[in-house]
């Protein structure tokens, strides 16, 4: 067995951080093909049994008021994830407990009838990566109109290089400077809340 010294650990972490995604994917694929224990570990991190993925409907999303609270006019009774008996209900358990409950076990992988999904996906609404097994009806906050318009009158009033303002880089650096038509709020104050959704 190879013994790694602290300096080697540091060098390995540096190499992992600076190696291309494609090369790391090849290494992981090779590990899965040659070392059963590595395959089980990697599978438990990247796959989740389909029956442990929350089910949601298209009308689960609700409006958020300007102060960040839920809009009471949008079906308060049907949208309480603590008391609702719907399939989209998720208990208020801790993240650690949810993670343990949703992680695939060795027995799951030995069952040929068991179906799996990738554990991580990118949300089409907020554009963040999320864990599908921990997805709740309060996980995603977003704007119905995803691309806000630059606030030239106030936020960017002193900006002289207007061609830089309507760029992805500026949108990332100054999200508070873009107003969304759906609600009149800036990017940092979403108007909708619900489950993360993937393609």
What this model shows, in words?
The protein is α+β, with helices and mostly antiparallel strands and 199 residues long. Helices cover 31% and strands 12% of the residues. The strands form 4 sheets. The chain has a 3-stranded antiparallel sheet with strand order 2-9-6, with no helix packed on it. A two-stranded antiparallel ribbon has the order 1-3. A hairpin with a 6-residue loop joins strand 4 and strand 5. The relative contact order is 0.14. This is C2H2-type domain-containing protein.
Shape: flat
> What is the β-strand count?
9
Q: How is the main sheet built?
A: 3 strands, antiparallel
Write out the strand line-up for the largest beta sheet, numbering strands in chain order. Answer: 2-9-6
Biased composition (Acidic residues): 69-85
Region (Disordered): 57-114
Protein name: C2H2-type domain-containing protein
Organism: Aspergillus uvarum CBS 121591
Q: Which SSEs are present, and which pair or pack?
A:
Blueprint lengths: L5 H13 L2 H14 L1 H11 E3 L12 E2 L31 H8 L3 H5 L5 E3 L1 E3 L6 E3 L8 E3 L6 E2 L11 H4 L2 H6 L4 E2 L12 E3 L5
Antiparallel strand pairs: 1-3, 2-9, 4-5, 6-9, 7-8
Helix pairs in contact: 2-3
């Amino acid at each position: 067995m190879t013994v790694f010294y602290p300096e080697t650990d540091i060098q390995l972490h540096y190499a992992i951080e600076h190696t291309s995604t494609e090369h790391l994917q090849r290494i992981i694929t090779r590990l899965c093909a040659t070392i059963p224990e590595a395959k089980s570990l990697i599978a438990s991190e990247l796959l989740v049994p389909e029956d442990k993925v929350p089910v949601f409907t298209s009308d689960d999303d609700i409006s958020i008021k300007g102060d960040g609270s839920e809009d009471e006019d949008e079906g308060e009774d049907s949208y309480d994830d603590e008391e609702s008996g719907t399939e989209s209900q998720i208990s208020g358990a801790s993240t650690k407990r949810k993670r343990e409950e949703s992680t695939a076990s060795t027995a799951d992988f030995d069952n040929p009838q068991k179906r799996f999904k990738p554990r991580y996906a990118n949300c089409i609404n907020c554009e963040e990566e999320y864990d599908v097994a921990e997805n709740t009806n309060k996980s995603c906050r977003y704007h119905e109109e995803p691309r806000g318009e630059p606030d030239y009158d106030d936020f960017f009033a002193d900006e002289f290089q207007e061609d830089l303002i309507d760029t992805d880089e500026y949108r990332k650096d100054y999200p508070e400077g873009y107003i969304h038509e759906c609600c009149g709020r800036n990017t940092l104050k979403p108007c909708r809340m619900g489950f993360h959704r993937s393609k």
